[in-house]
Amino acid sequence: MDSIGLRLTSHRWGRWQVVTIDGQVGAGAAGLLHTGLRAALDSAPLLIAANLAQAVLADACALEVLTGIHRRAALAGKVFLVVAPDPRARERMRVTGLDQILLVFPTVADFHAWNGNPGPQPDARGDLICG
């Protein structure tokens, strides 16, 4: 999916469906973010990761989308997590308490370590590379 400087790609990585978000996510692009994450949620058997290593969450709209997808995943018995949000978004998550609701990994390497398999290392852009 692509829209006004925002690009979403989705692929399988082991047990995970990973959606990589590249670009700025604000009110104008929140719908695209929701659509892409919802499609991954609907197609993934259990585990969904939003890789934000190349994204900038410009305003609260993006955080609302992530929170909504988290709720849908929980209701469906699935796991949704966030990987490598930008520092401002991570701080907003901390201040608002979203980091206590969402499962957030500060870096792609942290996600790999938690996953129990360092797996393929992220490329220079921070993308999770399938081996």
Question: Can you give a write-up of this model?
Answer:
- The protein is an alpha/beta fold and 131 residues long.
- It has helices at residues 30-43, 60-75, 87-96, 98-101, 108-114, and strands spanning 2-3, 6-13, 16-25, 47-57, 79-83, 103-105.
- It is globular.
- Helix 1 runs parallel beside helix 2.
- Helix content is 39%, strand content 30%.
- It has one domain: STAS domain (Transcription Regulator spoIIAA, 2-Layer Sandwich), CATH 3.30.750.
What is this entry, summarized?
The chain is of the alpha/beta class. The protein is built from 5 helices and 6 strands; from the N terminus they run βββαβαβααβα. It has one domain (about 1-110): 2-Layer Sandwich (Transcription Regulator spoIIAA).
Descriptive tags:
alpha/beta, 5 helices, six-stranded mixed sheet, Transcription Regulator spoIIAA, single chain, 131 residues
The CATH architecture term is: 2-Layer Sandwich
Model regions low in confidence, pLDDT < 50 over at least 5 residues:
none
> Which secondary-structure class do the elements indicate?
alpha/beta
Instruction: Figure out the total of helices.
Output: 5
What's the arrangement of secondary structure elements?
Layout: E1 2-3, E2 6-13, E3 16-25, H1 30-43, E4 47-57, H2 60-75, E5 79-83, H3 87-96, H4 98-101, E6 103-105, H5 108-114
Parallel strand pairs: 3-4, 4-5, 5-6
Antiparallel strand pairs: 1-2, 2-3
